Amino acid sequence: MSATTRYAAMSRRAAMTAAALTAMVALAGCNSGGAGAPADGDMAMGAPEGAKVTVVEYASVTCHVCAAWQEENWEGFKARYVDTNKVRYVFREIPTSPREVAVAGFLIARCAGEDKYFDVVHELLANQEAMRLDPRATLFRVGNGVGLSNERIQQCITDEAALEAAEARAQTSLAAGVDGTPTFFVNGTKVITPGSQSGTSLADLSKAIDAELAKS
After folding, report:
1. pLDDT digits (tens, 9 = 90+) for 84-102
2. Tens-digit pLDDT profile for residues 10-51
3. N or C: which end of the chain has fewer CB within 10 A?
């Protein structure tokens, strides 16, 4: 089977998952109660589970607003809160269009291992234009960059159990009342910047975090 055919097979499988995720949006409701509790498949940095403040970001590697937020705010947020262990930062996956590419990107990140998961996610966010022009080449290049062979990447993005797990994680995220990406919750409360076209501002996010940190 050629590389092109194998990638097409992956896309068909991922597209089936994407169709299921789209259907879930209509069924998800608006309950935000699950946003503060641990969920299967959570990927986290900073303070350990049970920290005084937990920040949950719902995002996608194919979301251009997510990419802009990372470029403008991630280093400042990480230095102030994550590197200092003031908060537990949790990233949750919601694949956005083109969903088959987002699903593949997340599966590669997970195959890279917990220690390299965020390296893959951030690299994909930083290379969205390249991923848009040539998704296969970009996904494989990023995967190669964290030590995955082409054969291993192919296994990762076509694994049926992994695709089902990705679908389950997305269902959990949607059930938390997330209706756009990126969306941030601080200790279970959604933080919104009214009128913003680029997601939650770092100023508003910091205000919410600092208020929680200040509580006795």
Report:
1. 999 999 999 999 999 999 9
2. 445 544 444 444 433 332 322 333 576 788 899 999 999 999
3. C
Determine the structural domain holding residue 116 and report its residue range.
3-211
Per-residue model confidence (pLDDT) at position 61: 98
Contact predicate 133/167, CB 8 Å: no
- Hey, is 46 helix, strand or coil? strand
Any domain includes 216? no
Residue 106 located in a structural domain = yes
Burial 85-119 (b: 16+ CB within 10 A, else e): ebbbbbbbbbbbebbbbbbbbbbbbbbbeeebbbe
Q: Which amino acid is at 83?
A: D
Three-state SS letters, 74-100:
HHHHHHHHHCCCCCEEEEEECCCCCHH
